[in-house]
# Entry
Amino acid sequence: MVESKLYQQNPIQDQLKPPLSTDLTAPSSFLESTANFPSSSEESPSREEWVFRDNRSLIHSNHELGSSVHSIVFQKAKDSYYWDVNNVQYLDMIGGLHTCHIGHGREEMAQVAYNQMKTMEFAPNIYNYSHSSAIKCAEKLVSITKHEYPSMERVYFTSGGSEAVEASIHLAERYWSLLNNSQTKKKIISFRNCYHGSTFVSSSLNEQVGKDEYGYQNLKGPTDRFSKDSIFLSIDFPHDFIVNSFQKHTQHANNGFFIAEQLENLIKLEGPENIAAFIAEPIQGVNGALEPHKDFFPLARRICDKYGVLLIADEVMTGFGKTGKWFGLSHYGIEPDIVVFGKGVTSGYLPLGGMMLARHLCQVLFKANIEHPFLHEFTFSGHPVCCEIVMKNLEIMFDENLVQRAAVMGTQLKSTLVQRLQGIPHFKEVSGMGFMLGLIFDEHVSAKRIHEELATCYHILVDYSRQNDRVVLITPPFNIHERDLNIFVDSIEQCVRNIVNTQQSTYH
Ligand SMILES: Cc1ncc(COP(=O)(O)O)c(C=O)c1O
# Structure
């Protein structure tokens, strides 16, 4: 166990405990069992009981049923910390689920929600009905976004990122059918190893492990992604680590240029008259904060313009400051036609996502007296309480200069991590920008194992890439204390060294 002074002074580390006992797994028959786990007390059930009840009653993504040793049942959150049902404190290095920019448990956010619920908890945002919260929120979002993407003009709200991706595909196809009366511009290009969500169409854009059982790409026939008639097409992600792994024998002078060429060749092969849009994460999130080669996006923008293909930026992860700018594509000096957002727009205080459209799209899509108005109906589109929460979140981010803080502190954190980890066997590099960073290892170290050991032994929460198990992903709240960043650096160094040493002693 770690023993530096830093740890001894810190409340989190005061609670460092040996790894949780491994006998917490409920009996193998627990799934069938309807009996109640014997309760420690009516008012405060034990952690074991919560884990048992979780396994019995709740479905959550990527949950390894039957293995409870790494289960954490959260109960409270404040600033950059969570507490579990046993009151054990955890340092949150992933801002909830890459959502929380302003820190947890802020009184003023609760007050805003309370006030809006008393005034008007809900109102329809459909037909000619609208309400002031959604209108003000849309205006605010457009005005902020215009600093980096001056063409943005209108907002459509959803309840989360996947729905927003789905709506952006609908609008892209509708745009071409209204502009050119085109019935063929339907195909969508995305990156391999991308993540765009879990609804049916957004899943179809993904090509990641575990998703191959769901989404259109698994339907045979006209939607099969490997047939000429495929609707969902993909190109490689222009990161050296990815390109070099499949181009083992051919090194390209510039992988950005190489993949841009791949994009252009694919458009030409399929026929530009068949391609509606190219959708991309400016920095791949779930794949591990992977940055594209810096030349790729400027070239991709030119290729999209040349062939009449819309560029959709999926900024669900990168949006609202995580990369040290308000939006990720602005690092490359270009703007998209559609921006999709979610997560940090509310800091996770309530669910909301959406998309913003550039002026030239709006001029086609929202002309007066259009024969069939846009029909994409979500009951909770523009929910008034969620919209008020967005506005308060953005106000806090401005008042506390949080995007700039993410840029400055993120850069420092990145260079400290490089200094401390380089030289450790199997560590390769730190990717990402601002407070969206990925620690990349080679195939001999499992990122999932680091994620589990950090949570269990150090009480620190990080994420890992489900696609390749080689990247540990961190996205802390932007106002995280410097002291906690130091604790994180010390802990991850120690954790990785322990894992590598144990592996080496096992090999020898
Ligand atoms: C880039 C990106 N797009 C879309 C989504 C889906 O968003 P949601 O989970 O809010 O539906 C995510 C979620 O992680 C994401 O990272």
Q: What stands out?
A: Residues 5-65+77-102+410-507 form a domain with the Aspartate Aminotransferase, domain 1 fold (CATH 3.90.1150.10). The pocket of pyridoxal-5'-phosphate is lined by residues 160-162, 165, 195-197, 281, 285-286, 314, 316-317, 342, 353 (CB under 6 Å).
